[in-house]
Automatic annotation (TrEMBL):
Residues 7-233 form the ABC transporter domain. One of its GO terms (molecular function) is ATP hydrolysis activity. PANTHER family: ENERGY-COUPLING FACTOR TRANSPORTER ATP-BINDING PROTEIN ECFA1, HEAVY METAL TRANSPORTER. The keyword Calcium does not apply. It comes from Paracoccus shanxieyensis. The keyword DNA-binding does not apply. This is ATP-binding cassette domain-containing protein.
């Protein structure tokens, strides 16, 4: 039998209390680059966390390269990494090297091996001089890059990006895109901003927890047109039930 490839989402649903937040959805994301676009509150972060195996599906299953990301956590941390919108939610150690070593230790590597891989990764990114830097003293863009380096040190086959460029200026964004393009992982990029997905050809539109459309770049035009129509309304006034 051929090994399973890509991301398979089957009957995935998630609710918070009585309130359905996502799904049920079924998808096959072959990669290498998948874009998911949706409005605020459409369920993007929930989907990102489910894909990375950080929260338990209410119903259904997610398999990435055949690994059930919730059931098999050990295999999952070798298969999928996630970058959050806010690096402050990811960085917990006082120095760059310690931050990078942590995930590798979680993968079961020895101290010496984890340290060596972290140092090698810093060399690959041209950032060896960062190893003893204080993480608190990094700029927002530098914190994003540290998170990317820390996750790439773990050599995931897939990287889930949850609005990774929100709040970054144009040069910082361009530099991060360059690093991402060269990182070698397959990517699921989840965002509210269609401009982030101009180079993506497998696109999905997430709307109120459901997949509203699937397609190529034309999907971004439809999404933008709908967003402009929504902008003419006052749906911010509606509170979630
Ligand atoms: N802890 C929570 N309690 C209640 N409702 C929640 C909670 N977390 C998320 N939700 C609701 O679930 C829905 C999906 O949230 P999610 O954060 O996944 O959306 P999103 O598309 O990432 O939003 P944004 O773009 O604003 O970050 C939203 O309607 C949100 O209000």
């Amino acid at each position: 039998m051929q090994p399973e490839t890509g991301i398979r989402v089957e009957g995935l649903a998630y609710a918070i209390g009585p309130r359905p937040v996502l799904g049920p959805i079924s998808l096959h994301l072959p990669g290498p680059r998948v874009g998911i676009v949706g409005r605020n509150g459409s369920g993007k972060s929930t989907l990102a966390r489910l894909l990375a195996g950080l929260i338990q599906p209410g119903e259904g299953q997610i398999r990435i390269e055949g690994v059930d990301t919730w059931q098999d956590r050990r295999a999952a941390i070798a298969t999928v990494g996630i970058l959050f919108q806010n690096p402050e939610h990811q960085i917990i150690f006082p120095t760059v090297l310690e931050e990078m070593v942590f995930g590798l230790r979680q993968q079961g590597r020895s101290k010496a091996e984890a340290r060596q891989i972290a140092l090698d990764t810093l060399v690959t990114f041209g950032k060896s001089h960062w190893q003893d830097a204080n993480t608190d003293a990094l700029s927002q863009g530098q914190k994003h890059l540290l998170c990317l380096m820390a996750v790439m040190a773990m050599r995931p086959r897939w990287l889930i990006l949850d609005e990774p460029f929100a709040g970054l200026d144009i040069p910082t964004r361009m530099q991060l895109v360059r690093h991402l393009d060269g990182c070698g992982a397959r990517i699921v990029h989840i965002t509210h901003d269609p401009r982030d997905l101009q180079d993506y050809d497998q696109l999905f539109w997430l709307d109120r927890g459901q997949i509203r459309a699937t397609g190529g770049l034309e999907l971004l035009e439809d999404f933008t047109a709908q967003m402009i129509r929504d902008g003419g309304q006052d749906d911010l006034a509606q509170l979630a039930g």
